[in-house]
Write a structure and sequence with these properties.
Elements: H1 12-16, E1 18-22, H2 30-37, E2 52-53, H3 60-74, H4 77-83, E3 87-97, H5 100-104, E4 123-128, E5 140-142, E6 151-155, H6 156-163, H7 179-186, E7 190-192, E8 199-203, E9 210-211, E10 221-230, H8 232-235, H9 238-242, H10 247-269, E11 277-281
Parallel strand pairs: 6-11
Antiparallel strand pairs: 1-8, 2-3, 3-10, 4-8, 4-10, 5-7, 5-9
Amino acid sequence: MLKISNIDKETSLDENGFLKTKLRENFNFSELVENIKNIQTNSDDQTLGYSTDIYDRLDESNKANLNKLANKFLRYEIVTRYLKIPRLLKILVLKSKFNIESLKNPSRAMLWHRDLDDVFSQLKLVIPLNLNDTENGAFSVASKKIAPRDVILVDKKLQDELESSNNDYRTEDKLRVSDLTFKKYYRDYIYEHKGDTTDLLFVDTNKCYHKGGQVLKEDHERYVLFIHFGQLTNFWHPLIQLKKKNIFSYIYFVFVKFVRLFMRLYFSLLNKKINSKKKFLY
């Protein structure tokens, strides 16, 4: 059993949507980190607003060890208490480099946003694999208290800039918030996840605004492990099932689309339609 300290265990997830805690198990990440260092990535990847996911390029032994670790966390009380019947959805190993264009024009994951993977809760576990701090792009999250699920924050200045840019890729960013604007309103609600492999962060990314960090110096890199846990409704995501590419996945796709439509109708009847009200930030 993984040993995790009980800092705010009973209140943080329920009250704020995230939980910071410590890994007390002596789990050795050194082999994984050496593997990451030897995998070549392109800093241009960050131009699209995302770090480079190198999980599929890891050695098989490291992938096997990460799956064992993720399944241990799947059975941990923090996860089972919050998600009831949790499922392991995905493991990401992200490598980030310095990119001046991305730094000047952050997009997608580098802007403040909430995920829409499901109408119900999910958890992402964030574990730094090298020393994460402000200069090499620490992950940031804000308390869910700043906005209920039916309210979406809109950065009016960013939206106006994108309206005139005619950049189709940036269309999704019109409903995201720049770091400057977000901190103007919610600085006191932000937690920046600085630390090393012993520092864990559980985040309900469907409920909490969050953003990926940006590497601020040329000689810096960031390595971070993301373990994604969901519930049955998240596991049933039609796009996840469709990737299996067999006759059963297509039947399942139609069935699940119907189930998720019913779920959204249920939320609408409760007057909790997700992102139905816009709050403009100037």
